[in-house]
Amino acid sequence: MSDNFQPQGNNVKSAAGMMEPGPANAQLIYILYFVGFLVGITTIIGIVLAYINKGKTGGFVESHYVWLIRTFWIGLLYSVIGAILSVVIIGLFILLATFIWMIIRLVTGLQKLNRGEPIANPQSWML
Q1: CA 106/CA 98 separation, integer angstroms
Q2: 25-54, pLDDT tens digit by residue?
Q3: Measured in Å, how far apart are the chain's first and last C-alpha atoms?
Q4: 91-99 — which CB contacts under 8 Å span 24+ positions?
Q5: Quick check: 49 and 27 in contact, CB under 8 A?
Q6: What whole-number distance in Å separates Cα of residue 20 and Cα of residue 53?
Q7: Residue 93 vs residues 9, 81, 119, 123: alpha-carbon distances, Å
């Protein structure tokens, strides 16, 4: 038995590889957005990464960067509206609807990314 274990294959993604524009980076941004529901600063890191890498990839990944950027800004817009209107009960419903909308949008995008599919209409406000 040898003491020199060498991992086989290229199954481990390096941290530097996840920062390069591409599917791994887009996946990292989706994860940062999800973690952002618990730790808000990770969403800011995610939007910065999306802006840095937008336009640097071709193909299906580019639509995911647009989708992620729009998800951030639209979610922020409705969160602010919901927070302002939370003094009246309707704001709480807007905040809940925004949370559900973001979760569905992020899950949909992540599933398409993992299947290697583009977002059909990344400019959409809907799902």
Answers
A1: 12
A2: 999 999 999 999 999 899 999 999 999 999
A3: 54
A4: 99/37
A5: no
A6: 8
A7: 49, 11, 28, 25
